[in-house]
From TrEMBL:
First-listed, main subcellular location of the protein, grouped into a coarse class: membrane
Positions of the Yip1 domain: 7-180
Organism: Alishewanella aestuarii B11
Subcellular location: Membrane
Name by which UniProt lists this protein: Yip1 domain-containing protein
Keywords on record: Membrane, Transmembrane, Transmembrane helix
InterPro entries cross-referenced by the UniProt entry: Yip1_dom
A GO CC term attached to the entry: membrane
Length: 199
């Protein structure tokens, strides 16, 4: 099953990382996992924007037109997938500095499984209250970072001390990627590609 590690990452993360390390599924397996998981935030955000409306705490709910929400959902889906692949590439590039010799598939596994809790936060968009989504988002981010710190020494076969520094470097790269995506979004919105609201 494509998502067979999903429950294990929540129920017993350390043991699940050992299972992932022992199996080392193919590049195709990791890719399918990412493609499926990235659908969750994209589809939930689309449904909320068109049918439920977002509440930011004051005023009426904010709705997007179906066409605008569709474009944003597709852009989000592509950005999420590209972000995971870029994070896997950066993790692979940095690995040699910390004495690890992983394949790109191994670092892609690391990036895809650690980003899974963050993508699952997309389910919170089905209750589109900004405060609620932010709280769930922070919890998802914290658990993703935790999974990264637990998984790096196991998957990269390096001591925990070096694994901690390596994981911290990967977190930094992830934050840089996030800033790049946000900056690109701001540039696109100011260039006339912003959302279209319904009245």
């Amino acid at each position: 099953m494509i998502l067979n590690h999903l429950w294990g990452l929540y129920a017993h993360p350390k043991e699940e990382w050992h299972t992932i390390d022992a199996r080392h599924e193919s590049f195709r397996y990791s890719m399918i996992h990412i493609l499926l998981i990235a659908l969750i935030p994209s589809l939930c955000a689309y449904y909320s924007a068109v049918h439920l409306g977002w509440s930011i705490g004051v005023g009426e709910r904010i709705f997007l037109t179906a066409e605008s929400a569709r474009l944003m959902a597709v852009a989000m889906y592509i950005a999420l997938i590209a972000g995971v692949f870029a994070l896997g590439l950066l993790a692979h590039w940095m690995a040699h500095t910390f004495g690890a010799e992983p394949t790109y598939t191994q670092t892609l596994e690391l990036a895809s499984y650690t980003s899974t809790p963050l993508f699952m936060v997309g389910l919170a968009a089905l209750y589109p209250e900004l405060w609620f989504v932010m709280m769930v988002g922070l919890a998802g981010l914290a658990y993703s970072v935790y999974l990264l710190y637990v998984g790096v020494p196991i998957l990269m076969h390096i001591p925990e001390e070096r694994g901690f520094i390596y994981a911290s470097s990967v977190v930094t790269c992830g934050l840089v990627l996030l800033v790049v995506v946000l900056a690109a979004t701001a540039i696109l919105w100011s260039s006339g590609f912003g959302p279209a609201f319904t009245h």
